[in-house]
Design goal:
There is one protein chain. This protein is α+β, with helices and mostly antiparallel strands. The chain has one domain (25-139): TT1751-like domain (TATA-Binding Protein). Helices cover 43% and strands 24% of the residues. It has helices at residues 2-12, 27-40, 51-57, 73-82, 121-139, and strands at 18-22, 44-50, 65-71, 92-99, 102-108. Strands 1-5-4-3-2 form a five-stranded antiparallel β-sheet.
């Protein structure tokens, strides 16, 4: 019975494809270009988490890494009305980080979200296209 319950739990986990692109820019430029592109696409930036600053505050060291949390409340709300579980994935997020002396941008592909969306599935495709566009702008010279 425990194995069946564990299988059911694992089967319900939603795993989205994570897309990572190398940037042709340094960290600061990639971050600023991403924020500009996010706003230019009609999104609201809800938060920005500076992981390096938080690590420094507790005496730890790490490379530059930030997460931008953003979205369009009207769009996200409609998705959550269809299936409230999608609220774990919203608002959208972009991670910008340095690894091995190179800057990258990562995001989850909304097309991979497996929720019970009745009328909102086409919105996920548009969200995916928008994320790709923002990431491409941020990582290009």
């Amino acid at each position: 019975m425990k194995k069946l319950a564990l299988f059911a739990l694992l089967a319900s986990v939603v795993i989205a494809e994570q897309i990572t692109l190398p940037s042709q820019n340094d960290f600061s430029t990639t971050l600023e270009k991403a924020k500009t592109a996010i706003v230019a696409n009609g999104n609201k930036i809800f938060a920005e988490f500076d992981h390096k600053a938080e690590a420094t505050d507790v005496g730890l060291k790490m490379s530059e890494a930030s997460v931008i949390v953003f979205g369009k409340p009207k769009v996200g709300t409609n998705l959550m009305v269809d299936d409230a579980k999608i609220s774990l994935k919203l608002p959208l997020k972009l991670a910008i980080f340095n690894q091995n002396s190179k800057t990258y941008i990562s995001y989850e592909d909304p097309n991979e979200y497996k929720y019970e969306l009745k009328n909102s599935t086409p919105i996920l495709g548009k969200m995916s296209e928008m994320l790709k566009k923002i990431a491409t702008i941020a990582t290009s010279k």
